[in-house]
């Protein structure tokens, strides 16, 4: 029974770490309801059973899903001629965003070990969720 309780505690702790940063962006608290993860992500985390490589794989897969969803929204906007300049600005800012996120999240790697790796991946997921929300909001404001 002790091993089961420890497993549940570790799994819960790792899940909490994977969403540790989701409520904050640039030091400003966001409404946690605005940041969403897919059901596939939650199922994957549950099935990972606190096994580090599986958890990292879950986080990386969710990053890919978030990115794909954002790209679909951008591609839809690019079909509107009045949105081309805004879409070009989003693409340009994306290049800078990639550099920023790499520098920001790589700091966790300095902590070393599995903890540093998981925190780094969680940081990327958090930043991707915020980027997706930003792009959605700006496109919505522009009338898409």
Give the topology:
Elements: H1 2-18, E1 24-25, E2 28-29, H2 39-48, H3 52-78, H4 84-106, H5 113-141
Antiparallel strand pairs: 1-2
Helix pairs in contact: 2-3, 3-5, 4-5
Whole-number average pLDDT?
A: 81
Low-confidence stretches: 1-34
In whole angstroms, how far apart are the ends?
54 Å
Give the % helix: over 70%
| Count of the domains | 1
**H and E string:** HEEHHHH
Beta-strand percentage?
under 5%
Keywords:
144 residues, mainly alpha, two-stranded antiparallel ribbon, 3% strand, disordered N terminus
Describe this structure in words.
By secondary structure, this protein is an all-alpha fold. The protein has one domain. The chain is built from 5 helices and 2 strands; from the N terminus they run αββαααα. It has a two-stranded antiparallel ribbon with strand order 1-2. A hairpin with a 2-residue loop joins strand 1 and strand 2. The longest helix has 29 residues. It starts with a helix and ends with a helix.
Brief write-up:
This protein has helices at 2-18, 39-48, 52-78, 84-106, 113-141; strands spanning 24-25, 28-29.
């Amino acid at each position: 029974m002790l091993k089961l309780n420890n497993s549940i505690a570790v799994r819960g702790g790792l899940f909490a770490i994977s969403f540790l940063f989701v409520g904050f962006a640039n030091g400003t608290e966001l409404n946690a309801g605005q940041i969403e993860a897919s059901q596939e992500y939650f199922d994957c985390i549950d099935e990972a059973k606190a096994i580090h490589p599986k958890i990292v794989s879950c986080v990386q897969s969710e990053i890919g899903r978030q990115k794909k969803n954002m790209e679909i929204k951008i591609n839809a906007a690019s079909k509107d001629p009045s949105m081309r300049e805004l879409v070009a600005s989003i693409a340009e800012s994306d290049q800078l965003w990639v550099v920023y996120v790499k520098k920001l999240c790589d700091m966790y790697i300095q902590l070393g070990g599995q903890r540093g790796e998981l925190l780094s991946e969680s940081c990327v997921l958090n930043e991707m969720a915020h980027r997706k929300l930003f792009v959605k909001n700006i496109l919505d404001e522009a009338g898409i």
